[in-house]
Amino acid sequence: MEQKITAIMIVEIAGRPANHVQEYLKAHISQIKNLKGICHISEKISEPKLIETEKEIYTCFAEVEFEAEDFLKLTEMVFDFMPSSIEIIKPSNISFNLGDATAYLNNLAGRLHRYDEVAKIAQLQNNQLAQKLQALQQELKNKEEQKPEKKTREKSKKKSKKK
Known about the structure:
Layout: E1 5-15, H1 18-30, E2 38-45, E3 49-50, E4 58-68, H2 71-81, E5 85-90, H3 98-162
């Protein structure tokens, strides 16, 4: 697995305002230059474009060419930068020995396990918040339903005092 791999990846983000989207993407991509085992070759960053179906949301993408020292580093780049696409330019063939394949699969399994853990925690927290929101909505509804009764009782008291 000790063969250098040249690849191009597309990294895209969306947000607002437009200048923030582009500046964040530039900062995110600049991290590649500091990664061990990665040689940054070139980058092209697009101008932010308004997403037609969204109100005031802009998208911006970067095309980044780099060289990874091996397939494991390439895989780490995919997990760390979450590109929308990646293309291996060279070599035309990649081979693994048994030890490298095992290390690669264990790295992949470990990362997937961590992402699954984060997703499950987020889902649990989301469910808890939804339950709290539902309870608060019910409590508010109950208070709203009690208000007319209170006003009716107060009016009745005022009428009986007048008599």
